[in-house]
Amino acid sequence: MKRRLLQEALKNIVTQNRAPTESIDVIFGRAQKMPLAGVECDECGVCSKVCPSNAIDTSGEWTIDLGKCLFCWDCRRACTKEAISPVDAPDYAVSREGLIFTKNTPPVKNKDTLDAKKLKAVGRSVFIREVDTGSCNGCEVEVNALSNQFYDSERFGIKIVASPRHADVLLITGPLTKNMYDALMKAAAATPEPKVIIAMGTCAISGGLFSKGEVVGEGIGGTVDVDMYVPGCPPAPDRLIRAMLTAFGLTEQK
C-alpha cells in the first residue's frame, strides 16, 4: 500500500514538473520585432529626436543601431508619415556592425557561427557564468528564467555554473560601471581559454541609457573581446537560447 502511494506521488511530481511540449515551438518559432523605416521615410529626423538612446541616425540615410535600441517604439509613435514598421529582429550578431541596419532593408536570418577553435572548445554543451556589471536586473530576470521548467535550457546542454573557472562562456550584462570593472577583469582572467564572451542586452553592447554615466565606456566592447552580441532590453530567454544554439552550431544536434 505504502509502495503504491509512493509510486503515485512520484508520478505526479514528474508529470507536474515536465517542460511543456509547446515551449519547443516558442523557442524556435517566436521572433523579436524591431522598428525599421520603409521607403516612405524622408529622414525628417522626428524619430531620432525622440529616441532616448540615440539609436536612430537621420543625418544621412536612415539607420538604426540595434545595439543601442531599447525597443520602446517611441520612434514609431512619433513618425507622422507612419513610415516605421515592425520587422523580425536578428537574435544575435558576431560583430558590432552586424547590428546596424538601414531603411527598407530588413535583416536576414542570422546563421553565423563563432570561431572554429572556440566551437571545438565548447563542444556540445555550453557552461555559462553570468557577470552583472551594473545592470538594472532586467537581464538577470531573463537569465534566471532559462532554468525554469518552461524554457529549461539544460535540456539543450546550456547550463549556468557558479564559477568562471568552470565556464566556457561569460554572459555579461549591464553597462560596466567603474565599480564593477575589477570584478569583470577577474572573472575574465579566471575563465579558461578559449572562452566565449557574450554581450547580453543594450547596456552591455552600447551602455544604453547609462552610456554617459559612471561607466567605463560605451558597453563592454572596449574592455574585453566580445564574440557575440544579443540585442534587447532585455533579450527574452527564448531568443538567448536560440542565439546560442545557432552561433555554437548546435541547432541540428539538439
TrEMBL record:
Its EC number is 1.12.7.2. Keywords: 4Fe-4S, Iron, Iron-sulfur, Metal-binding, Oxidoreductase. Belongs to the complex I 20 kDa subunit family. The keyword rRNA-binding does not apply. The gene is mbhJ. Its cofactor is [4Fe-4S] cluster. Signal peptide: none annotated. It comes from the Archaea. It is an enzyme of class 1 (oxidoreductase). It comes from Candidatus Methanoplasma termitum. The keyword Calcium does not apply. This is MbhJ protein. GO terms for molecular function: 4 iron, 4 sulfur cluster binding; ferredoxin hydrogenase activity; metal ion binding. Pfam families: Fer4_7, Oxidored_q6. Residues 32-61, 63-89 form the 4Fe-4S ferredoxin-type domain.
